[in-house]
């Protein structure tokens, strides 16, 4: 089936226009996508779209045979093939960077595959040179589509499918748009890479390619809206943090004032109780009365501990504020020894052998791990396993603490670092433990990340300490 000039015009003109529209849609929003990891890669897809649009329009000119000079048409054929090759290479690069960003461990394998394809195709071109014969050019075009276009489109589709699955796993909207775009890329890859140009499947293959391109454009436009939604969510989150900063600062000042006011009467009560115990009459009190005195002393100690937590949360000074070389291995063992009094049926597994020392405050870091261990114990009321791993990287030390407790629900995860937030019963906790941990990590130029364990019950806390001195702390969100 040979297409008439009108049919050629009606197929190739919108065919190229679709890809041109894809390029415009991406570039017009690229500035908005600059800070989004996946969306920031789409500039490669835009380059593919623009170049491929020029290729299809050149093909339209060639098929219309607007000139009688065969030499000129062969020249147009060379330029068109070159544009097609460059465009598919851009799509190949996009697919590799997309998949490597989604699954980091695939990066070396993808680049190896890309280099092998280039070597095979280049060697094939070298054997066919010179490329003046029209039949030979048709063979080169098919080989290019089969070796480069087909894997590029299929890898792009795979990247869209993987990203759609990740979006669905996080409960985010728009995953079906990436599934649709990926499915359209599969169809386009088959029609473009596996089936030679000029083939007729009820309709000319160019019609099926153009139809697939239209479907890609449709779903891609909605997929780009998903990126815009993500950007708006990030902006809203930052604005919310900024709005809360002043309120939390005021809470911190109030907490410090309350803690100072409480500390004085508590210290006086503790001193009076200690002096009272020195009297012989008190020593000879009945057991029931002595037990009540012990209860009073424990209540005073608990109140003092809460006041101390408030002071630390509010930025109050603690001893040993000067940073020195700290061995995290021995410090972690020491912190567990202090937390073990709360342990009943808990197993502590420490996989840390040797770690490079870091600069920090021994007491603050001990407080950090003590809070983490006590939180883990509280999350395992019936007992469980607390496991700790650690390793050194090029410029940081990473510590990972995992437990087999009740874990963290997805709705609570964004709030766990907020002061006074707790899932414990009233009177069982102040909700300051993780806020204090965040503050200590910030003072040491590090970071703390908390996540649920999806494969088993429990939570996972990852701490990252810089090795090259203390970085400038970030502005605290709380």
Summarize the structure.
This protein has 478 residues and is of the alpha+beta class. It is 63% helix and 10% strand. The protein has three domains: 5-232; 241-313; 324-466, Heat Shock Protein 90.
Annotate the secondary structure layout:
Layout (H helix, E strand, L loop, with lengths): L4 H23 L15 H22 L5 H33 L4 H22 L5 H36 L5 H20 L5 E2 L1 E2 H72 L3 H4 L3 H27 L10 E3 L1 H12 L6 E5 L7 E3 L1 H17 L5 E9 L3 E8 L29 H11 L3 E6 L6 E8 L12
Parallel strand pairs: 4-6
Antiparallel strand pairs: 1-2, 3-5, 6-7, 7-9, 8-9
Helix pairs in contact: 1-2, 1-7, 2-3, 3-4, 3-5, 4-5, 5-6, 6-7, 7-9, 10-11, 11-12
Question: Could you walk me through the main structural features you see in this protein, from its secondary elements to its overall organization?
Answer:
The protein is an alpha+beta fold and 478 residues long. It has 12 helices and 9 strands. It has 3 domains: 5-232; 241-313; 324-466, Heat Shock Protein 90, CATH 3.30.565. It has helices at residues 5-27, 43-64, 70-102, 107-128, 134-169, 175-194, 205-276, 280-283, 287-313, 328-339, 362-378, 433-443, and strands at residues 200-201, 203-204, 324-326, 346-350, 358-360, 384-392, 396-403, 447-452, 459-466. Strands 4-6-7-9-8 form a 5-stranded mixed sheet. Strands 1-2 form a two-stranded antiparallel sheet. A hairpin with a 6-residue loop joins β8 (447-452) and β9 (459-466).
């Amino acid at each position: 089936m040979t297409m008439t000039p009108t049919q050629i015009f009606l197929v190739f003109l919108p065919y190229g226009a679709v890809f041109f529209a894809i390029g415009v849609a991406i570039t017009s929003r690229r500035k908005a996508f600059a800070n989004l990891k996946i969306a920031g890669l789409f500039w490669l897809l835009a380059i593919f779209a623009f170049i491929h649009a020029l290729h299809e329009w050149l093909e339209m000119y060639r098929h219309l045979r607007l000139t009688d000079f065969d030499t000129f048409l062969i020249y147009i054929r060379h330029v068109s093939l070159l544009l097609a090759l460059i465009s598919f290479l851009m799509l190949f690069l996009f697919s590799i960077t997309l998949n490597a960003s989604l699954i980091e461990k695939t990066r070396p394998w993808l680049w190896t595959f890309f280099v092998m394809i280039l070597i095979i195709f280049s060697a094939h071109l070298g054997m066919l040179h010179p490329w003046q014969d029209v039949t030979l050019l048709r063979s080169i075009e098919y080989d290019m589509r089969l070796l480069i276009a087909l894997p590029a489109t299929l890898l792009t589709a795979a990247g869209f499918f993987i990203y759609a699955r990740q979006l669905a796993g996080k409960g985010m909207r728009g995953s079906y748009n990436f599934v649709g775009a990926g499915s359209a890329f599969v169809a386009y890859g088959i029609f473009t890479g596996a089936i030679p140009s000029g083939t007729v499947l009820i309709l000319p293959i160019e019609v099926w390619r153009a139809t697939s391109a239209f479907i890609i454009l449709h779903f891609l436009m909605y997929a780009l809206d998903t990126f815009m939604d993500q950007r708006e969510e990030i902006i809203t989150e930052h604005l919310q943090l900024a709005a809360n900063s002043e309120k939390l600062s005021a809470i911190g000042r109030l907490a410090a004032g309350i803690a100072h006011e409480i500390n004085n009467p508590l210290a006086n009560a503790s001193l009076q109780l200690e002096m009272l115990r020195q009297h012989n009459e008190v020593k000879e009190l009945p057991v029931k009365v002595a037990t009540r005195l012990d209860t009073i002393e424990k209540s005073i100690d608990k109140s003092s501990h809460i006041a101390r937590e408030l002071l630390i949360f509010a930025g109050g000074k603690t001893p040993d504020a000067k940073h020195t070389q700290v061995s995290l291995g021995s410090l972690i063992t020491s912190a567990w020894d202090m937390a073990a009094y709360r342990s009943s049926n808990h197993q502590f597994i420490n996989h840390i052998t040797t770690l490079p020392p870091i600069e920090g405050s021994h007491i603050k870091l001990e407080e950090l791990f003590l809070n983490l261990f006590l939180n883990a114990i509280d999350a395992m009321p019936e007992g469980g396993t607390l496991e700790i791993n650690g390793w050194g990287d090029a410029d940081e030390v990473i510590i990972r603490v995992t437990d087999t407790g009740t874990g963290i629900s997805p709705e609570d995860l964004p709030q766990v670092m907020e002061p006074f937030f707790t899932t414990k019963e009233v009177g069982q906790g102040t909700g300051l433990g993780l806020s204090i941990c965040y503050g200590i990590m910030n003072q040491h130029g590090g970071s703390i990340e908390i996540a649920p364990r999806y494969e088993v019950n429990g939570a996972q806390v990852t701490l990252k300490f810089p090795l090259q001195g203390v970085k400038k702390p970030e502005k605290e969100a709380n």
